[in-house]
Specification:
- The protein has 287 residues and is of the alpha/beta class.
- It contains eight helices and seven strands; from the N terminus they run ααββββαβααβααβα.
- The protein has helices spanning 12-22, 31-45, 108-118, 136-150, 163-172, 192-201, 218-231, 270-274; strands at residues 54-57, 69-72, 78-80, 93-99, 119-130, 176-189, 239-251.
- Helix 3 links the parallel strand 4 (93-99) and strand 5.
- Mean pLDDT is 84; it is low at 1-6 and 73-78.
């Protein structure tokens, strides 16, 4: 079922077109994608088990595991699909990998639920996505410039989820033993034009459905760069741009997995371990 337009934050058709356009020269701009893919490889190498049926969502420029079937849009080895509408049966996959694609899902909770649904019991999901700190400098600079020049705001930077939100969504999607952590990467640029070129190079331009259509007056970007230089530059005068990459790990539930202890089932209290007196609710301390 297609989400109602009122609930669609992103223009997925435009997103697909921009990814296709960026594909030919993607390797010239993919340093963040390479970082995320390498991190997922490292995390996967720590898991001592074999995965036979593997799907990679997005990241079609590079397979994290050679021979992996990839859900992408232009890769010749791809399963043509949309991350929001996965064509896999229940309990059909051992491993799902997702390098930097879920941040543009309109129904992120639904996408996570579908991934969990497709995993076999004790199957693994490893994902990476841009998080809430991403491009906060650019967002603030554009907002200040637009308010000063026009007295209003239009959506220009993605509304990225943060770690706390993703932890809640992983639990809501039914993953067992969920782990959510992130890395902050600071990249420096001589000017906004170079930053925008890197974003376009990986197909990450503005795809917000309610974005202002048409050309933006150059004065806005000049004013935004002025604010940027006044606030977020390194010692050499270059613009600093932050990218937060959130990493997600979750298992499809299985009886063999470690279960949390029931409340009150511990054999020793924390007070006993710390050598202090335990005081129950309502009790008085001292004479």
């Amino acid at each position: 079922m297609t989400p109602d337009n009122q609930t669609q934050i992103f223009d997925r058709t435009l997103n697909r077109a921009r990814k296709v356009k960026a594909y030919q020269n993607f390797s010239d701009f993919d340093f963040l994608h390479q970082f995320a893919s390498n991190q997922l490889k490292d995390r996967l190498s720590d898991i001592t088990r074999n995965f036979e049926t593997i799907i990679q969502l997005g990241g079609y420029h590079e397979q994290i595991i050679e021979g992996t079937h990839t859900v992408g849009m232009t890769d010749k080895h791809a399963v043509i699909a949309d991350e929001e509408f996965l064509p896999f049966g229940k309990n059909s996959l051992d491993l799902v990998l997702s390098p930097l694609c879920l941040h543009t899902a309109n129904d992120l909770p639904g996408a996570l639920i579908q991934i969990n649904h497709a995993l076999k019991p004790d199957g693994l999901f490893l994902g990476a996505m841009f998080g809430g700190e991403t491009l906060f400098e650019l967002r603030e600079s554009l907002n200040k410039a637009e308010i000063e020049l026009s007295g209003g705001l239009s959506p220009r930077i993605f509304p990225f989820a943060d770690k706390q939100q993703m932890g809640g969504l992983m639990q809501r999607a039914g993953f067992a033993l969920p782990v959510v952590d992130s890395d902050l990467i600071t990249v420096t640029y001589p000017n906004l034009q170079k930053l925008f070129a890197d974003l376009r190079g990986v197909g990450e331009g503005n795809i917000i459905r309610d974005r202002r259509k048409g050309l933006t007056h150059p004065a806005l970007f000049q004013k935004a760069e002025d604010y940027y230089r006044d606030t977020y530059t390194d010692s050499g005068g270059k613009l600093e741009a932050t990218f937060e990459i959130i990493f997600l790990t979750g298992w499809s539930p299985h009886d063999s997995q470690q279960k949390p202890l029931r409340p009150g089932s511990a054999e020793h209290s924390l007070a006993e371990k710390l050598g202090t007196q335990e005081v129950k609710t309502g009790e008085k301390v001292g004479p």
